[in-house]
Amino acid sequence: TYVTDEEKSIVTETKRSRFIHPSAIVHADAILGQGVSIGPFCSIGPSAKLGNACQLYPGSHVSGNTELGDNCTLMIGAVVGDDLPGCTVIGRNNVIGHHAVVGIKCQDMKYKPGDECFLEIGDNNEIREHASVHRSSMPNDTTVIGNNNLIMGSCHIAHDCKVGNSNIFANHTLLGGHVIVGDYTHTGGGVAIHQFCHIGSYSFIGGGSVVTQDVPKYTMVSGERAELRGLNLEGLRRSGFSDSEVVSGYRSLLIFFLKSQEENEELGRVPAVYSMVQSIRDSLTEDRRGICQYRSWTRSS
């Protein structure tokens, strides 16, 4: 194939803009974007694809059918992808922390060797040191993480989880398989969430809680067996909810739990209230785990 001088110049300039340390092992079939930097003792597998300006710190590894978007950073010792059927796809501007493990085989006995398994991660996520994120357990499912999430050190996101956007998981937050998390949730440290639970948007889970049932939208739970403590008042205010929306949400909780789900037409017209009550009702269907038990607000404790 005839190559023009201009095309040769572009190829030469692209190669110059990359940095690959002599001790790194980069397969000839790997696809590298412009401005990629690969540090000492890294390895890049034959099916890997790295976007522009990706940076791999020493001892990080990309294997299997794995795609990194532009401007992704792998810190020292990070491992992304696995030599399994299926793929790991990671968007732009993500940071994978020191010795984090992302996109490897799940820890689910349902997984059958040879089955395809998948992980999709969006943009602008920070996954900190020693965190682990696993691929799906079955070919017809995918582990998904959205955009703008902060996943702190030693967190675990298991197979087939669905995590939305702008969530903050504090250190040692553990998500069992098939957990669904909405948007703008916040967990304290040392939280454990049982498989198949749903965590509603704008909710807060106190540190050290064990969550075995669903957490409704906009609420706060805590406890060794997490109990519903009320609205996530501070979180809602920080997220821009008006005082009237917050007050309406609090009144609706009182009605729902203390007045046998008595209907209130005025509150039902507030979108945030309607969404919260609907999330509670959804959790009470037969195929769900129900909601966290509510703590009686008449107790001094």
Strand content: 25-35%
Distance between the termini: 79 Å
Structural class, from secondary structure content? alpha/beta
Number of strands: 31
Query: Helix proportion of residues, in percent?
Result: 10-25%
Strands in their spatial order, largest beta sheet: 1-4-7-10-13-16-19-22-25-28-30-31
The total count of helices amounts to 5
Main sheet attributes: strand count, strand direction, barrel closure: 12 strands, mixed
| Mean pLDDT over the residues | 87
What's the alpha carbon Rg, rounded to whole Å? 23 Å
**Shape by Cα distribution:** elongated
**Unreliable parts:** 297-301
Protein name: UDP N-acetylglucosamine O-acyltransferase C-terminal domain-containing protein
Keywords: Acyltransferase, Lipid A biosynthesis, Lipid biosynthesis, Lipid metabolism, Transferase
InterPro entries: Acetyltransf_C (IPR029098), Acetyltransf_C_sf (IPR037157), Hexapep (IPR001451), Lipid_A_LpxA (IPR010137), Trimer_LpxA-like_sf (IPR011004)
Pfam families: Acetyltransf_11, Hexapep
